[in-house]
Amino acid sequence: MGQTLTTGRWIFWIAAAAIFLVLLWLLNDILLPFVVGMVVAYFLDPVVARLQRARMSRAMATTLVTILAVLVGVGVVMAILPPLFGQIQKLIASAPEYIVKAIGQIQPFIEPLRDRLGLDPPSLHDLQAEATQWAVKGLAVAGGVAGAVAQSGFALINLLGLLFITPVVTFYLLRDWEKVLAAIDSALPLDHADTIRKLTRESDAAIAGYLRGQALVCLALGTFYGIGLTLVGLQFGLVIGLIAGAISFIPFVGTFVGAVMALGMALAQFPPEWIGVVKVAAVFIVGQMLEGNFLSPKLVGDRVGLHPVWIMFALLAGGSLFGFTGVLIAVPVAAVLGVIVRHFLARYRESDLYRGSANG
């Protein structure tokens, strides 16, 4: 009887997971406003909880936090995005010229290696033509994507949803967060409820440690790089710094891309005054020291338990399967799977399958 019950439970949970994945795949085009609302609510719940502890009602705290979040979001979009997009467009248009200048500065250092390998010297005219061609392709692709997005019915629905549905979803999730958790808790299978609660607490710690902590790390690094590169006089320093900070949630990629862009721009701009290049390199060195010794240990810590390779795989897999929605849910799903796998590995090491019947 017990074996039959266990088998039936496994069938039930596997079927439930399969149905969930199918629904996620089928409804992927309209899920973005709801997923964003859930993510925002998850970020803001600690603020609402703190206001509750200050003797404010849950409904009032939710209303206040939601209104402030909407005002801040609208203000950021209106104040930062238009000039930022303008700077990005100028950067792409000027990229061929800067690439040729940067290569011209480093060419004397690679001449011995080129001669040793027997390679033909590169023509600066050909390099500029190639770089211009890539820049034109980049602008064409960006324009094509923007046009496709503008003409896509689902994209329009998602845009309207982000503007109107996401704040509503965020408000109701924040207001009813405790009720939702209580309802889920009451539906847990009684004989496994304690184990599920333990795994849920570990998953929440991992998700909160990464999402909330990494968001603060990205914001801090983007601000530091943007201001630092601007202060040392690098052209488009603010844009490059914000790009480097924004993609810092992908391990190693944000720093590498930002450093390559910044140093390439510095090589095109500063020489023969090499001190400017040194200053740009110093900004990224200090930024990495700040992240490794202070930001990540303090804001993310050791609670995450996610290997950088696993994070990169989860982001790529989520984006490939479900687009931007998949990117948003990739790390939380990876964190939960990591907790579950560690739990079953611990159970396996305690079982006769690992110890052997002689040690049972």
Structure description:
- By secondary structure, the protein is mostly helical.
- It has a domain of 163 residues.
- It has 12 helices and no strands.
- The longest helix has 60 residues.
- The chain is globular.
Question: Mind telling me the C-alpha Rg?
Answer: 25 Å
Largest sheet: none
Helix content: over 70%
Structural class: mainly alpha
| Beta-strand share of residues | under 5%
The N- and C-terminal alpha carbons lie at a distance of: 24 Å
Question: Total number of β-strand segments?
Answer: 0
Number of helices: 12
Poorly predicted parts: 141-154
Mean pLDDT rating? 75
Which structural traits does this protein have?
mainly alpha, globular, 360 residues, single chain
Layout of SSEs?
Layout: H1 2-26, H2 32-53, H3 58-117, H4 124-151, H5 153-175, H6 177-186, H7 193-231, H8 237-246, H9 253-269, H10 275-300, H11 308-349, H12 352-355
Q: Could you provide a short overview of the structure?
A:
It is built from twelve helices and no strands.
